[in-house]
Amino acid sequence: MSHDQGSDNQKLIQEVSLLESLIPAIVLVVLLALSVFLYGDNAQAGASQLSLLFSAGVALLIGWKNNHKWRDVEKAIAHGVGNTVNALLILLMVGSLIGSWILSGTVPAMIYYGLQVINPDFFYVTACILCAVTAVSIGSSWSTAGTVGVGLIGISAGLGMSVEITAGAIISGAYFGDKMSPLSDTTNLAPAVAGSDLFGHIRHMVWTTFPAITMALILYLIIGLIAEHGAAEINIQARLDLLDQNFNIGLHLLIPMGIVFYMAFKRMPAFPTIMIGSLVGGLFAVIFQQDTILNFVKADYVTGLSMFDGVLRAMFGGYVSETGNAELDGLLTRGGMNSMMGTIWLIICAITFGSVIEKLGMLKRIVDSVIHLASSTGSLILTTALTCIGVNILAADQYISIVLPGRMYRLEFKKRNLASKNLSRVLEDTGTVTSVLIPWNTCGAFMAGTLGVATFAYMPYCFFNIFSPMVSVLYGYLNFKIEKMDEAELAAAE
């Protein structure tokens, strides 16, 4: 009897309608818009998180109306949040790494030498290229931003450049490299989901990716050349002197960064790699920056306890700079695990909302409703691109924005005799690169927390991330470099 009753209960669950599926999304957009209107860049301090939870509550009410059980939804939330634990741990360790690398002099050394080497006229384009090369070699946009990116933000402030444009250049380069590197998670995930091979996928991406990065580099070059920074150059020596007075600067302080790059190149997992980088930074601080630690913890003598106190405090609470220069102090007062807690809170709330609407079938219902609108190859690619962006907004996770549309559209691409690498390319051109443009997405939250620049502030300057989806969709409508299935794919499809 209990089995029959359970079966009856299962039958009572109703499929959500398109209108019901759209309601939580509409509520979310309205609440987020109000949050930004009221609080601006500070919306992520709590208003955005509550908007996501309130919208999840609206979805739950609709699910309750359709006889979904809370226990099942709760398991989906736990599963969704559980899948982000690695990202959350990485966030904590990046905060720790920034704090220990400032205390150790690693970040100040990057700023010190960067101020002397980089020409302000070519700074933005140089930052983009440097991050692109780094990300290609290690396959991680996050590691690139957390190491080279942090230093470049410091250099930009020292040169009197725009940190918002700098952040955009860093992200553009980092995502180009991440997208084109065979070591990248997303570069391996997209062809796996679409059914194409890795290197065929990378070769096919060249046609859309290189035009996008070329246009981005031209814009960064033009902006750098027309920007006025003559007055800033006069103050460079003063900033160099302040860095020299407060830290024992030397090229050896770049060793922690080299260790992290080496481990990343060897495909070591991100969390232990960054953790080791943070610990090495703490060790370098004790060896080379004892006076800095004493000033930091307000101690009179070098003791084991004072050294331990300084390193620990920088790793969990961040470094506090007191050079007397407001700009430099604002730049170097950063890091620590505590600084990432707001970002982690945002990610958990976003994943909660995404898990709820996915479990209740709302996400699939919305995607199913738009696939019928794709009548031509161009409209199919546009629909796929918009779906990836939409999933990035609603599910707040880069991987879901690749996996879900990849699963949904794979059969449709085959039906139209389109090679699977067309699908894998558009998944990367849109799902991978637009995730960082959304404040509550794991990638957007990470970059804002790591670089210290709000997502909406750097978004207009992420030229590569903006151009990449446009080029991909344009190719679809022009039917340029859209390949048909070869004999092997046709045989497999049959």
Task: Based on the model shown, name its key terms.
494 residues; mainly alpha; 0% strand
What's the gist of this structure?
The protein has 494 residues and is an all-alpha fold. It is 78% helix and 0% strand.
Task: Describe what this molecule looks like in 3D.
With 494 residues, the protein is mainly alpha-helical. It is 78% helix and 0% strand. It has a domain at 85-340. The protein has helices at 2-12, 18-39, 47-65, 70-83, 85-104, 106-117, 123-138, 141-159, 163-180, 185-194, 198-226, 230-234, 236-246, 255-265, 270-288, 290-297, 304-317, 326-332, 341-359, 362-371, 377-395, 398-415, 420-434, 442-451, 455-458, 463-478, 487-493. The longest helix has 29 residues, at 198-226. The two termini are 45 Å apart.
**How many runs of DSSP E, i.e. beta strands?**
0
Class computed from helices, strands and strand pairing: mainly alpha
Number of helices: 27
Q: Order of SSEs, N→C?
A: HHHHHHHHHHHHHHHHHHHHHHHHHHH
Mean pLDDT: 86
How would you sum up the global shape? globular
> In percent terms, what proportion of residues is strand?
under 5%
Unreliable stretches: 5-9
The gyration radius over C-alpha positions equals 24 Å
Q: How far do the termini sit from each other?
A: 45 Å
Helix content: over 70%
Q: Biggest sheet: strands, sense, closure?
A: none
